[in-house]
Amino acid sequence: MGWQHTFTLNRRSKGCHLVTDEVLGHIRPGLEGVQVGMLYLFIQHTSAALTVNENYDKDVRRDMDMALDNIVPESFDWRHTDEGPDVSHTKATLVGSSITIPITNGSLNLGTWQGIYLTEFRHAPHSRRIVATVL
Q1: CA spacing 20 to 30 A to 98: which of 6, 9, 73, 116?
Q2: Which Pfam families is this protein grouped with (predicted)?
Q3: Which of these CATH numbers, 2.30.40.10, 3.30.1330.30, 2.60.120.460, 3.40.50.2000, describes 3-73+84-134?
Q4: Are 134 and 26 in contact (CB under 8 A)?
């Protein structure tokens, strides 16, 4: 049997944000009793993304944000500018809208230095909806 829950992450402005603990707070009931399974997280937005990366050193998050800004600069001649130079859709495609994490004995089986990132591409703070599915 599967388990699914949609939840909203706290508002955050542009940057790479470690959200592992916040996600766990929402999905803990779905992990209970799962000996071997998979967690699928899907973000229901086109201007933010999810990824797994370094969970300890905040400089990694700053470096990720800087690298994405250099790969996809606001200075391009963007046509979609309803909310300013809109790099967010391109960055969201590069990073991705979903991640998959194994579950072992009721816990996420992340590596020692791995955590779940929300990569927010809008400058203004936004709340983001996530669909969590456990199989």
Answers
A1: 73
A2: YjbQ (PF01894)
A3: 2.60.120.460
A4: no
